[in-house]
Design a protein that fits this description.
Layout: H1 12-18, H2 20-30, E1 34-41, E2 44-52, E3 68-69, H3 74-87, H4 97-100, H5 117-121, H6 158-171, E4 199-202, E5 205-208, H7 223-226, E6 229-230, H8 232-252, H9 265-268, E7 273-274, E8 284-286, E9 291-295, E10 297-298, E11 313-314, E12 321-330, E13 333-340, E14 345-351, H10 359-372, H11 380-405, E15 421-424, E16 431-434
Antiparallel strand pairs: 1-2, 1-14, 3-6, 4-5, 7-8, 8-9, 9-12, 10-11, 12-13, 13-14, 15-16
InterPro entries: AmpC-like, Beta-lactam-related, Beta-lactam/transpept-like
Protein name: Beta-lactamase-related domain-containing protein
Family: Belongs to the peptidase S12 family.
Length: about 450
């Protein structure tokens, strides 16, 4: 009697291909026009996937060499650039930023003047974000060119951005892989750049709307925090090299790896700042541009999804793995990177929308669970639906609240022109300029 052949385990590449319809479901739920994904496991590239359009109007699909914004994924690259300066003896990790940038922390207290690179890179300076204006997309902030955007603290974490960008030319030639996604992609052609879309809701459909890109990139003061552009092809090469350095330096106890540009990795990925983790005892912390999560545990802890639902515990019931990850979001783009050093795993995602929840976050978590096959699997499509629904309900509620608080036919208590001027908050560098238009009388 002929025996049936015993079926072996399904290869990872095939399992990931079978995941593609579910990824497209999340794409539809969250309203992402186009995205690109790349995965490395056990040090080998196993899968790439592109879906949708990088140019909706001309129906151009994304490719693995399509250029997207990395957004806050830039932070780990800036951190690595500063580490290079430390390794060369040009600066120390505990050097006050004010010693490097004399204008930093002017008018602030003594504690602010002692803020160092790790304080900024690990987001533990204690300051709120004051650099959001250039991210909004319209980019016309001041109508009078004689005006300047002023902040007494030099926009806080942008101090380290200035250090990094000012030294990029001197640092990067010895590490050409760091230049991937920056200067090399500034002049990319239209068919290779993912255009940026939020969306409008019409008759139950998400309709992507092309918007101007935020003011980021080479030479812009936000470069160090969010300015890098890259592709999935280049991200896989970049983060594979980063991961090789992390593993080698932890095994050897050294601060550098022969032939590898990344140095001081033990400091870069160490836990410098605690993140809230009320639902778990395992580690949730922040390094230098990296979030540390000991899996099983919740990912996406600094993203928008976490604001609307309690995040699932990825790899629940499975063995423990350290995950180093980060998320990025700006007007019209989202990004996600996850490194699992023990298994030489890289999961990279880039998308051209900031839609109904962070779809790249859900996709990344879904892929990680597919790679490691824990006994408990989560329905990330359901999580995506919950977040999308809450966001859709939240937007109209804002208009309703404003309308309810509005007092019709309110007469100003003073002549309208008397409200013109500059108004500065007494405790932060926040400022509002109000101008009177004599022609319109408003």
């Amino acid at each position: 009697m002929r025996q049936r052949p015993v079926k072996g385990p399904v290869p990872l590449a095939e399992r990931l291909r079978r995941l593609e319809p579910r990824l497209k479901t999340i794409q539809a739920i969250t309203g992402i026009p186009g995205f690109s994904i790349g995965v490395i496991h056990q040090g080998v590239e196993v899968w790439k996937f592109n879906s949708g359009y990088c140019d909706v109007e001309n129906k151009i699909p994304p490719r693995s060499d399509t250029v997207f914004n990395l957004n806050s994924l830039t932070k780990s690259i800036t951190s690595a650039a500063f580490a290079c300066l430390v390794h060369d003896g040009k600066v120390n990790w505990d050097t006050p930023i004010k010693a490097i940038l004399p204008d930093f922390a002017q008018g602030c207290d003594a504690i602010d003047q002692e803020i160092n690179a790790i304080d900024l890179l690990s987001m533990r300076s204690g300051h709120q974000s004051l650099n959001c204006l250039p991210w909004q997309g319209n980019n016309i902030v001041l109508p009078d060119r004689r005006d300047t955007i002023n902040s007494g603290t030099r926009h806080l974490a942008l101090g380290i951005s200035a250090i990094s960008s000012a030294t990029t030319i001197g640092v990067l030639p010895r590490a050409p892989i760091w230049a991937i996604g920056t200067k090399a992609h500034q002049d990319a052609g239209r068919d290779s750049v993912g255009e940026q879309f939020p969306f409008v809701r019409d008759a139950g459909r998400q309709i992507p709307v092309l918007v101007p890109g935020p003011t980021i990139g080479a030479g812009i003061f936000t470069e160090g925090g969010s300015g890098v552009l890259s592709t999935i092809d280049d991200m896989l090469a970049l983060y594979k090299t980063y991961l090789d350095a992390i593993n080698d330096q932890f095994r050897s106890g050294t601060k550098s790896t022969p032939g590898n540009p990344f140095v001081e990795c033990a400091t870069l990925v160490a836990a410098h700042n605690r993140l809230p983790a009320k639902s778990i005892l395992r580690e949730q912390s922040y390094g230098c541009g990296w979030i540390r999560c000991q899996l099983p545990g919740p990912l996406g802890m600094i993203g928008m999804n976490n604001d609307f639902v309690e995040m699932p515990h990825v790899l629940e019931g499975g063995p423990s793995h350290l995950c180093l990850y980060h998320m990025g979001m700006m007007v019209g783009s989202t990004s996600n990177i996850a490194l699992l050093p023990e298994t030489d795993t890289v999961v990279a995602l880039l998308a051209n929308a900031a839609p109904l929840g962070d779809g790249t976050d859900w996709m990344s978590q879904m892929i990680i669970e597919e790679i490691f096959e824990p006994p408990t699997r989560h329905n990330f499509g359901e999580y995506a639906e919950k977040v999308a629904s809450k966001i859709l309900n939240h937007i109209p509620s804002l208009g309703k609240e404003l309308e309810e608080r509005r007092i019709p036919d309110t007469v100003p208590s003073s002549p309208i022109e008397s409200y013109a001027g500059g108004f500065v908050h007494d405790k932060t560098p926040f400022k509002i300029d109000i101008r009177f238009d004599e022609e319109k009388g408003a």
